[in-house]
Amino acid sequence: MKKIIQSIVSVLTLCVLVSTTVAQGVTTPRNPSPAASVTQTIGISKVTVKYSRPNVNGREVWGALVPYGWNVQPFGLQNAAPWRAGANENTVIEFSHPAKVEGKDVPAGTYGLFFVINQDNSGEVILSKDHRSWGSFFYDPKHDQLRAAIQVRDNNPVDLLTFDFINLTKTSAELVLRWEKKQFPVKIEFATDEIVMANATEELKGTVGFTPQGFQSAANYALQNNTNLDNGLIWIDQAIQANKTFTALNIKSQILKKMGKTEEGDKLLNDALATATEAELNTYGYQLINQGQHDKAIEIMAMNTKRFPKSANAWDSLGEAYALKGDKENAIKNFKKSLSLNPTAAIRANSEKYLKQFGVL
Q1: DSSP for 95-133?
Q2: Would 16 be classed as within a structural domain?
Q3: What is the domain count for the chain?
Q4: Containing domain of residue 76, as a range?
Q5: What's the CA gap between 46 and 42, in Å, rounded?
Q6: Are residues 165 and 102 located together in one domain of the fold?
Q7: Residue 27: what pLDDT?
Q8: Computed from CA positions of residues 187, 190, 193, 199, in that sequence, does the dihedral angle turn out positive or negative?
């Protein structure tokens, strides 16, 4: 009897395994609405949209395939529901950091993404905490994270539904759904400077914090973006303690001046210039040029030629500073000096390029 029972159990187990295997099937292409995803980095934050892409395929879309307004679904909760912004499962949007969507705060996380379109092109965007549901059939307004009004735009024809990001800046972008002849825009914003500073604080607790470059880069971001200068000063002091370079001292000098400590910042910079290398002076000169400070750049690059009179690169850079200022006479003189010092091929090419522009070669 025991053997009979064991045999029956074995057969039943095999049947379950076969049944499960058959039910699962193999992976095949999803048609006619293939799955897709798009990710955009804004600052250091990421927004990802996962969706399915229906095709217009000659069908009437707005007011027919996608009804206007809120509509009762025939299955599921049978609530009035918005459009699922695609096909098949929920369209899903994920934010790596807290964001503002159409000016409203949204915590970091994953949400179901829905839209409403009305006949006058007014509409809504809805973010639902129920991001695992299938389409709109189980949409429940009590689980909304956000609802905001949007204005649907007319658009060039798009046959295959597409999500994209446009009007990208350091802190924001527009997420747009394009389909048929409509475009659904949603503005997304991040507090990028705050996010970068908070992330830097955490990263500096790890391996990045074992190098002066880590603290220097964090301080330089604070300087360039005029944010968290108190932290920037602490970080640059830690970088200087590990490796006292002109670049680090220059960053500290600029931070001090932005904090209103101009005299202290100028003294620090003058002390740093006294020990700067040729490469450091050259880099600083080009930084000043990029900031539009041509006279100050010429002063620094002239200092470089006095300290390193046999450097073809120093004379070439001084010539370029004069050329960018519009001082043709002094530019020509310094480019010729550079060429007289047997420069490398790259430096020679740069000097000759300018001289040809001035009609000298």
Answers
A1: ESS-EEETTEEE-SEEEEEEEEE-TTSEEEEEEES-TTS
A2: no
A3: 2
A4: 35-190
A5: 6
A6: yes
A7: 79
A8: negative
